């Protein structure tokens, strides 16, 4: 997963590290095994039509990620990502 490799190898400032944590939390919530309000909120948050501070699109800009490519990879690998995040063994393989 290209976005994960980029995230793992790019040095970040404290501020961008916080936004990376927000992105990571959204991935964890979106791929949660148990449906919940948080899962619905996280899936809705990935709406790339929003560009305000803290939105998915804005955070991708801060982290220098392409939001369309990110969503494509997340969608294409959703089950794999879900399994890896649940196991706690998530890496760029």
Offer a few descriptive terms:
single chain; 93 residues; mainly alpha
Account of the protein in words:
By secondary structure, the chain is mainly alpha-helical. The chain has one domain. 66% of the residues lie in helices and 0% in strands. It is built from six helices and no strands. Helix 2 packs across helix 3. It is globular and about 30 Å long.
How can the largest sheet be summarized? none
The helical percent reads 55-70%
User: Any idea what the shape is?
Assistant: globular
What is the tally of beta strands? 0
Q: Decide which structural class fits the backbone.
A: mainly alpha
H/E element string? Answer: HHHHHH
The number of helical segments is: 6
- Count up the domains: 1
β-strand amount: under 5%
Alpha-carbon distance between the termini? 7 Å
